Amino acid sequence: MPASDAGEWVVLGRVSGIYGVRGMVKVFSFTEERDAILDYSPWYLGPARRPWVLEDGRMQGEGVVAKLEQVDDREQARALIGQEIAVLRAELPDPGAGEFYWSTLIGLRVLNREGVALGTVSAFLETGANDVMVVDDGKGGELLIPWSAEASAGVDLSVGRIIVDWQADW
Questions:
Q1: Is residue 142 within 8 Å of residue 122, measured between CB atoms?
Q2: Residue ranges of the Ribosome maturation factor RimM PRC barrel domain (predicted)?
């Protein structure tokens, strides 16, 4: 039986389309290296987290395509479009020192160096130049704070907070 606690799941991508006539799906991968999503099986799809065994997969152009067991035609593959691909957190390798999975940081409190509460982490954005931490200020707004090695040095998981060099009015 798969884990039931949402905190035990990490979403690695989503099914974005169909590929070919033999039931392959296109995958939009959230992993740093796009094809790293193929290192995990089973994939747990959709809100019910139904397990699907990964039979085969590869890079196809700039994207990833995959063949799941028991998905043998275009219509079966089409039914999976839009579903999130999750794995159990325990299946992920431990991050190195000073490294964090973004999903671990979602929900942490964010304070600046002066101790002013800025809000909670709601998401991260990959912009190409640098990553950005999205902080919900609790007042209907959000702050976009550059994420860097320096910012990650302020993470304290034991107390659930991140200290950043940032002002509330920036």
A1: yes
A2: 102-170
Q: How many domains does the chain have?
A: 2
pLDDT digits (tens, 9 = 90+) for 70-105: 999 999 999 999 999 999 988 998 888 888 888 889
Name the least confident of 2-6, 119-123, 161-165: 2-6
Burial of 60 (C-beta count, 10 Å sphere; 0-12/13-18/19+): middle
Range of the domain at 157: 102-164
Global pTM exceeds 0.90: no
Tokens describing residue 68: 């799941």
Taking a C-beta distance cutoff of 8 angstroms, is the pair 65, 24 a contact? Answer: yes
- Residue 112, SS3 per DSSP: strand
With vertex at residue 160, the alpha carbon angle to CA 113 and CA 147, rounded to the nearest 5 degrees, is 55
Instruction: Kindly provide the b/e burial profile for residues 48-59, where b requires at least 16 CB atoms within 10 angstroms of the residue's own CB.
Output: ebeebebeebee
